[in-house]
Amino acid sequence: MITIAPELALFRRFNQQFYRLFEPGITKQCARYRRTRMVHHAEYQANAFLAKALKKVRKDVFEKMIVFLGWENVDRTNNHVERNNRVFRMLQKTRYKRRKAHTIEKALELELYTRMIGHPLYRPLPIEEPVLTEFVIPFEDLDTQKMAA
Which of 30, 47, 108, 138 is the Cys-Cys partner for 26 at CB 3.0 to 4.6 Å? Predict the structure, then answer.
């Protein structure tokens, strides 16, 4: 893609540096330092789209984004994951049968299937009528079938 449109190289570099802000194993101080370097990067500030994106990662907002870096055993999550967790906890709370591992797995499967079917881009596969060639009795075998009956 970069050979076709060289201007994408800047966006690719920005994207990689942005994700490195949240990589596991770094300290909060390191993440802050990386953010500061990105905010003051001349090429990023020269591009209107990237400058607008960097304004959304203000210091106060960024501090909330890196809270998980303060603990060793905490996974990164986003609003989508948290929303799904809340929905599932509510389902689990209202249906007390969903406590064992296999019932939780089945409930998650059913929930994902329901969301998939409700998605606007979901297109069900066309159902083809099965061809029952193996059950069709050839004309010449009718006499033997009558004798067997």
Answer: 30
Lookup: tokens for 46: 């020269």
Domain assignment present for residue 126? The answer is no
Give the chain's domain count: 2
For residues 110 and 89, membership in a common domain is answered with yes
Q: Domain range holding 51?
A: 8-70
Contact residues for 47 (Cβ-Cβ < 8 A; gap 6+): 10
Higher pLDDT, 46 or 107: 46
List pLDDT tens digits, range 129-141. Answer: 766 666 555 555 5
Q: Distances in Å between the alpha carbon of 49 and those of 45, 53, 54? A: 9, 6, 9
Distance (Å, whole) CA 120 – CA 82: 22
Containing 18, the helix (H) or strand (E) segment is helix 8-20
| 15 within some domain | yes
Same domain membership, residue 48 and residue 83: no
What's the one-letter identity of residue 47?
A: N
Is residue 149, in this structure, part of any structural domain at all?
A: no
For 35, counting Cβ atoms within 10 Å of its Cβ (0-12 exposed, 13-18 middle, 19+ buried), the class is buried
Q: Residue 40 falls within a domain, yes or no?
A: yes
- Tell me how far apart the alpha carbons of residues 91 and 95 are, in angstroms, rounded to a whole number: 6
